């Protein structure tokens, strides 16, 4: 029996590490998880020190789990999932929060958040265009409504 071992170059390894760092910054990751029996909810603290208290009934995989077992919830080492190992339940943190955020926030609020972030976006093209318009004297002044025609 021959074993085919594929070698990874230093450049490929460095590229994979960089991609992982970028993904970790973009994705929502968990730092801590616990069951809050008074609220029958799961509390997740994320990598940005934000906290979410999610009613257990919103998490389908945990609905039928006895409350005594929920104290055994753990975070994966990379923070990408929470698990209940005894029951072989693994839940993506990013997927969970992406699925429940629309239920937590009114759709108008979510739309306003995304619209304001989109308006703040900067790019090389926007900076170049802004400089070019500045050289031309900037944005044209609005005409006064009191002008006599």
Descriptive notes:
The protein has 149 residues and is α+β, with helices and mostly antiparallel strands. It has a domain at 29-106: NE0471 N-terminal domain-like, CATH 3.30.2020. It has helices spanning 10-26, 67-70, 93-104, 107-120, 124-135; strands at residues 30-36, 41-46, 51-55, 74-75, 81-84, 89-92. A hairpin with a 4-residue loop joins strand 5 (81-84) and strand 6. The chain is flat.
Summarize the structure.
The protein is α+β, with helices and mostly antiparallel strands and 149 residues long. It is 40% helix and 19% strand.
Strand order of the largest sheet: 1-2-3
The radius of gyration computed from the alpha-carbon positions, rounded to a whole number of angstroms, is: 25 Å
User: How far apart, in Å, are the first and last alpha carbons?
Assistant: 92 Å
CATH topology of one domain: NE0471 N-terminal domain-like
Order of helices and strands: HEEEHEEEHHH
Q: Report the strand count.
A: 6
What fraction of residues sit in β-strands? 15-25%
Mean pLDDT: 83
CATH class of one domain: Alpha Beta
State the share of residues found in helices, binned by percent.
25-40%
CATH superfamily name of one domain? Uncharacterised protein PF10387, DUF2442
The appropriate CATH architecture of one domain is 2-Layer Sandwich
Characterize the overall form.
flat
Number of helices: 5
Main sheet? 3 strands, antiparallel
Question: Structural class of the helix and strand makeup?
Answer: alpha+beta
